[in-house]
Amino acid sequence: MNQSKAVVVFSGGQDSTTCLFWALERFGEVEAVTFDYGQRHKLEVEVAAAIAKEQNVRHHVLDMSLLGQLAPNALTRDDIAIEQKEGSLPTTFVDGRNLLFLSFAAILAKQIGAMHIVTGVCETDFSGYPDCRDVFIKSLGVTLHLAMDYPFVIETPLMWLNKAQTWELADRLGVLEYVRQRTLTCYNGIVADGCGECPACTLRRNGLTEFLTKQGREGASR
Q: In sequence order, what DSSP letters do the residues of 42-110 get, joined into one string?
């Protein structure tokens, strides 16, 4: 085990929860940070707090409500539909979100003596979000190092995994059912399997089905 310290950018969703368990397996000390940016469902923050408590992980919640004022989007506004028009980003894309989240996570990491910042961004199933790309993460890592003269390492364990492979990773970590039952991925704010209709639920369900089919399992239980 690497005895250094890590901060996990943590939303309480499938990806970040899988990353949390990934970090707990690798680092001597892990803390989590959740951002309250005025998202539609405050339950997201509550779910993240509950999981962190259950896993005995110190949990920080930072107020980022200004982001919702600067960049109106479907995740913060009830009057904006969740959709993706041809040739444009989904309305769930929040300009600057990962840039700000990782920057603030880095500031926190330096204060608590953590070198590693773990995030669940992914370039395989990323809906075209520019701030989920590997090139952005590498660029930001250099910028943060230069800005604070501190040797940050941004860890992206899901970067090249599709959703089926993310479920496989959770399974290898022994937490597939925990991730399925305890996390909130749904854009409509429904825990576990969610509404089953929004883009996030569809991606999550299709990935789970693909993984279980490859494993020759029936249903989602081991």
A: THHHHHHHHHHHHTT-EEEEEE-THHHHHS--TTT-TTS-----TTS--TT--TTHHHHHHHHHHHHHH
pLDDT score at 210: 96
The C-alpha atoms of residue 78 and residue 120 are separated, in whole angstroms, by 26
> In the numeric block, which tokens belong to residue 64?
């980022």
Q: In this structure, are residues 45 and 153 in contact, taking their beta carbons and an 8 Å threshold?
A: no
Dist. CA 65–CA 37, nearest whole Å: 4
Q: Which residues of the chain have pLDDT under 50?
A: 1-2, 74, 220-222
Quote the CA–CA distance of 48 and 51 in Å, as a whole number: 5
Amino acid at 86: E
Report how far residue 116's alpha carbon sits from residue 94's, in angstroms, rounded to the nearest whole number: 24
Give the sign of the dihedral formed by CA 32, CA 183, CA 202, CA 82. negative
Whole-angstrom CA distances from 220 to 174, 203, 209, 212 are 14, 16, 8, 7
Question: Which residues lie closer than 8 Å to 129 by C-beta, 6 or more apart?
Answer: 89, 93, 98
For residue 34, the cross-strand partners are 61
Tell me the Ramachandran region of residue 113: left when phi exceeds 0, alpha when psi lies from -120 to 50, beta otherwise.
Answer: left
pTM value is 0.88
**DSSP letter at 198?**
S
